[in-house]
Amino acid sequence: MNAEPTRTTDWYLDHLATDTERFAALLETASTDVPVAACPGWDVLRLAEHVGQIHRWAEFCAANARPPSADEAAALESFDPDRPADWLRAGSARLASTLRRLDPDDPTWHPFPVDRLAAVWPRRQAHETAVHRWDAERAVGLEPDLDAELASDGIDEYFELAVPRLIVRESVAVPDGSLHVHCTDVDGEWLVWSDDGEYRMIRAHQKGDAALRGPAAPILLRLWGRNSGRTGELDSVGDESVLAAWLAIAGM
After folding, report:
1. CATH number of the domain within which 175 lies
2. Of 8, 92, 109, 124, which one has the fewest beta carbons inside 10 Å?
3. CA Rg, the chain, in Å?
């Protein structure tokens, strides 16, 4: 059985810094008006605005242990389309500075159905930034990658944090069958299922009604509704309708 993953704040914030810089560098060197496949109606510039605003919003919530008021939220949306790379870097740096000051067990506010502790924020922002950096690089014709260890942790966060939130916020029904997910390049195995309509997840090597196996990065991207171009590296077995139901939770 897999133990619950333990990562340090610094580990997440190092990834946050790396992916922010890659995104910012892209804004300085590539066309920003190209569409982003995973975000219909958005181009790369709009995606950068979204990521930078999320950084600023998360920093406010982490620093103040509450969500911003309407006026405060409006003040956080001061996007600079003439200098998007610098604006993105500035928001990420302020977020990282705030998160480094917090103990992981400090109280905070966030919208997810788990304990409201500061440990949620470095993890969530590292994954948010990594996937959207991947989106931007893919949009401009690059062949982006995702760190395998980060991707495995992202799968864990998806099952622990994102799926429960989508069930509550989007009224998503928990699929009837069970799904086993197994990373083949790094550690990571999960079983998710419905217990009389209630969502359940364990980190374990246990057989499900369907299974998805492969490298961590294409699994994570597939769960988040992205076509990574690496679907040929994924193996599925068992009930295809169960797999399709679980993959439909986040779209695609």
Report:
1. 3.30.1050.10
2. 8
3. 18
